[in-house]
Write a structure and sequence with these properties.
By secondary structure, the chain is α+β, with helices and mostly antiparallel strands. The protein has helices at about 20-30, 75-90, 115-120, 130, 135-145, 160-175, 180-190, 235, 240-250, 260-270, 330-345, and strands spanning about 35-40, 45-55, 60, 70, 195-200, 210-215, 220-225, 240, 280-285, 290, 295-300, 310-315, 320-325, 370-375, 375-380, 390, 400, 405-410, 420-425, 435-440, 440-449. Helix 5 (about 135-145) packs across helix 6 (about 160-175).
Length: about 450
């Protein structure tokens, strides 16, 4: 069955076969030292699913098509979908102030439900999981959602925030009278036909995979503990297989009644003010958006402890690509698989935003200073070479390469390799640099160098 790309039916480009996918997944898992992985490709008319390896290196349990993997931040797609389904039922208005439902946000009356889902609320990222362990959602949000810590006026910027999804999950619980897990299961997961699994389940109803760390020197692989705090569940506690993600992708493409097509379209619409930098080309409600070959794709990436999971959906043709892997190195495996799919089918599946044409590097000494996102401190200094260097919470500094559009690359001090890092922002009133966005998270300037 030809891979649908919008090309005429006379197009005879190569087709994607089950055996080709299986062979590449097996090979790439060995190359990248990934214990186990799954891949599902739904062309809109044909579903191909492959898996390889072991789910848990300690037990040797096989990785099957049904194995559920910790999804990390892909969970946010399901939380956002649950909120929008409640909106469909008239239980809430996405443009209403979130403080109507969440008294912990009373210092931020301009933050709407929509701002939470699109990461445009100006909320800090939130404390790390170890710090958040044992706290309640109310205490978590009261500590984070303060006027003092606001990064920008709601709707005027983008900062990826787990705290925003802790708030969204608490909102779902407040409206439904259920826990977040119960609500997302009843509203979305059960109707999709999936068997829900969550971090913290003591007796999961299906096989689950462990995350793994790989010692690059010895090649030894060992399972790692998932440390997500219970309060962070709406931001990252879901486990699922690639086939489960493919079913979710079909709903996001508007192909099912689980998520009405008009609702899916609203989730895919770019949010004003959302400029996610290195994460995507734009952002919707719970969805990263990518522009590729004149078409918009949507999806999300997620990393739990020792896992890497990815979802991409092209709604015009109903194409869905879903991947799970149970090692951090599976991110590189995913990128290689996408290259293979492109080579075989001619359809380019985006893994990152389109590269910008930024011109020659420039000196930017005015960027030096201290910036904060909640408890995280970003310190930028000018090194002996005259180039800026970034240190996060006192870590060893990494060089920055800056460009005329105020974007910047991070330079690996060991290899010299450049990776897209983020973007500086100027205050529209004064023209002074007042914010920096690094890896999608914005920090507000609090002091000079």
């Amino acid at each position: 069955m030809p891979y649908p790309t919008g090309a005429p039916v006379t197009d005879r480009r190569p087709t994607l076969t089950h055996q080709a996918l299986q062979d590449r997944l097996d090979t790439l898992a060995r190359i990248h030292r990934v214990p186990g992985a799954q891949l599902a490709v739904d062309t809109g008319t044909q579903l191909l699913s492959v898996h390889t390896g072991t789910a848990d290196a300690a037990t040797g349990a096989p990785f099957t098509a049904d194995t559920a993997v910790p999804l990390g931040s892909v969970t946010k797609v399901c939380t956002a979908a649950a909120v929008m389904l409640l909106a469909d039922d008239g239980d809430l208005d996405p443009d209403a102030p979130a403080a109507e439902f969440l008294p912990e946000l009373r210092e931020l009356p301009a933050v709407s439900v929509r701002h939470l889902l699109g990461h445009t609320a100006g909320l800090p990222t939130g404390p790390d999981s170890d710090t958040a362990a044992g706290t309640t959602a109310s205490r978590y949000l009261s500590a984070v959602c303060t006027a003092r810590d606001a990064l920008f006026a709601p709707g005027t910027g983008f900062s990826y925030s787990n705290a925003g999804y802790v708030a969204a999950g608490r909102l779902v619980a407040a409206v439904t009278g259920m826990t977040w897990q119960e609500a997302v299961r009843a509203l979305l997961l059960d109707p999709l036909g999936t068997v829900p699994a969550f971090l913290g389940d003591t007796r999961p109803a299906r096989p689950v995979a462990a995350g793994h760390a790989v010692n690059t020197a010895s090649g030894r692989v060992r399972p790692v503990h998932q440390n997500l705090a219970p309060v962070e569940a709406p931001a990252g506690a879901l486990l699922a297989s690639a086939l489960d993600l493919a079913a979710l992708g079909g709903a996001l493409a508007g192909r099912t009644d689980v998520l009405p097509p008009a609702t899916a379209a609203r989730m895919r619409r770019p949010e004003p003010g959302a400029e996610p930098g290195v994460l995507a080309d734009a952002w919707g409600l719970g969805l990263a958006l990518f522009r590729q070959d004149g078409r918009w794709w949507c999806g999300h990436d997620g990393n739990a402890q020792g896992t890497s999971c990815h979802l991409r959906v092209e709604p015009a043709d109903g194409v869905v690509v879903a991947f799970t892997g149970n090692a951090a190195s599976a991110t590189a495996l995913w990128r290689d698989l996408v290259e293979d799919i492109t080579r075989i089918t001619g359809v380019r599946v985006p893994t990152a935003p389109a590269p910008a044409h930024r011109g020659a590097p420039i000196a930017l000494p005015e960027c030096a200073g201290t910036y904060r996102n909640g408890r995280t401190e970003y310190r930028i200094t000018v090194g002996a070479s005259g180039s800026p260097e970034l240190s996060v919470d006192g870590d060893s500094p990494a060089p920055l390469v800056c460009y005329p559009d105020l974007s910047c690359d991070l330079v690996d001090p060991a290899t010299g390799r450049r990776e897209p890092g983020g973007h500086f922002h100027r205050d529209p009133a004064t023209g002074a640099i007042d914010r920096v966005q690094i890896s999608g998270r914005t920090a507000r300037r609090t002091g000079t160098a």
